[in-house]
Amino acid sequence: MGISCIVLCGGQSRRMGKNKALIKINGVTIIERVIQELKKISKNIVVVVDKRAKYAQITKYEGVKIFEDENRDVGPVEGMRIGLKHIDKQSAFICACDMPFIQGDCVKELYGYKTEDIYCVVPFANGKLHPLHGIYDKKTYELLSDMVKTDKKKIAYLFDRAKTKIVKDYDCNLKLSLTNINNPEDLESIKKRGVVYG
Predict the structure, then answer these.
(1) So what's the pLDDT on residue 21?
(2) Which end of the chain is more exposed for a tag (fewer CB within 10 A), N or C?
(3) What's the CATH code, domain 4-192?
């Protein structure tokens, strides 16, 4: 696949009380699980973090590059901007670091909707958009940079300025792919359900 992947790890994890990316499930950290899955579909993975030193363990993965946010307290818009600045391909799948069950098939399905004139491909599920599980063109870097400069922190502003495809029907297991861990209750729920790494 001619696509890069960007993983955002710059959040504060306030609700969890500790770094979500480094939580282990079945002995594997969430960030490593995400990387392992994304490496099946891309050789160019960019991880955007708040502080590089926290993530030394992921430098062992070939093709993974780590960059720090340049602007603090801006939110995911800054991570998206930095990631797109450093990708090798024209398009990238962007996801959050708290999604331990990312499905490569879902990434491929979303990427199938990407065309030269469509800059963003975002799934709609459970009554809302999921921008941190979408495909973005490298050209959106300039738009995101303008958003950071003008203090527009909501990703939705990007969809007003760039042609966006909203995907409502899909064949992959999107529900599993979108599973994220925001707090200790989410983590406990996953353990009780017996969800394991595949």
Answers:
(1) 87
(2) C
(3) 3.90.550.10
Q: Domain map of the chain by residue range? A: 4-192
CB contact set of 172 (below 8 Å; sequence gap of 6+) = 103, 105, 106, 108, 109
- Residues with Cβ within 8 Å of 128's Cβ and at least 6 positions away in sequence, in order, are none
**Would the CA dihedral through 71, 21, 137, 159 be positive or negative?**
negative
- Give one word for 47, left, alpha or beta, with left for phi > 0 and alpha for psi -120 to 50: beta
Q: What is d(CA 128, CA 105) in angstroms, rounded to the nearest whole number?
A: 21
CA angle 122, 125, 129 (to 5 degrees): 45
Model confidence pLDDT, tens digit, residues 134-165: 999 999 999 999 999 999 999 999 999 999 99
Here the tokens at position 98 are 């708290």
Half-sphere exposure of 155 (CA within 13 A, CB side): 20
